[in-house]
Amino acid sequence: MDIARRHTADPLFRLVAFALESAHDRPPATVWSAPHAFHLGSPRLVAAAGWPVAAAAAPRDDGLVRLSSLAHPAQSCELPLTGPPSAHPDWAARTYALLRTMARAGYGRGGVDLHIHSTLTAAAGLSSAEPLECAVALAVADLHAAGSRPRPPRGRLAALARQAAPDGDEALREAVLFARPGRALLLDDDGSRRIRFDPPENGARLMLLVTRGEDAGPGDVRRATDHARSAGALSAWRPGREPGRSALVLLPQDRLTAVRTSVAEEFRSRGRPVPRFLNITVAGAARREE
């Protein structure tokens, strides 16, 4: 796979493929993307956003994993998949736990060179942990299947991710693995079903409002969403399980300027940085990039 030099490939995936080759002196055998996901005002109603993470991987045969990340260029690491776990940087903890769990289950035991990247920072309020888990799990499963072995189903990969990180957000994992464009995923005790959720189809916009400044917090988000509602937003809610520095805002298309202006004026009046508004496309599930 030579995505790094394929001019028609998405720049993000070319970058991740090139980064793996630069870090580990070999091209990737597979590259996967996975969308960030968010809650729709309920713990069991979720959808995927059109901002991906990426994982590039190449197989090894010595039982080692070499991890690298564009966000942590000075903290690459080489770690064993079996035996006692080795010391590792904080950023690699969740990925390392997943790879060891998958190895115990028979997937990727030979080892892997892996490079990961997220397009969003923590300030955006959308968790990168679950999409990175899913991208990594799918990449390792792809390498496993390349040897004429059966490919583990996505439900099996979700279970392994849950085993490796039981404190993760299971609903977000489901969205990352099973979302469809223009659809939300409603989870219940009997499984899941898809519900149409396509704001542009109904003359609306879904925006991510991100407050700015090192000291920004839930209080700033409440002020912003209050003013957004006053200016015509239909609803606003936090994207994850805990309050943070961002909120999702659903608004009529023709109220976008009024909402942004109202929020900007309120923050400027207090000498605060004006929040950013980012458009969200309701996206599909994780996929292999060709």
From TrEMBL:
InterPro entries tied to this protein: Ribosomal_Su5_D2-typ_SF, Ribsml_uS5_D2-typ_fold_subgr
Organism: Streptomyces lunaelactis
GO MF annotation list: kinase activity
Gene3D superfamilies documented for this protein: 3.30.230.10
Protein name: Galactokinase
Keywords: Kinase, Transferase
Listed SUPFAM superfamilies: Ribosomal protein S5 domain 2-like
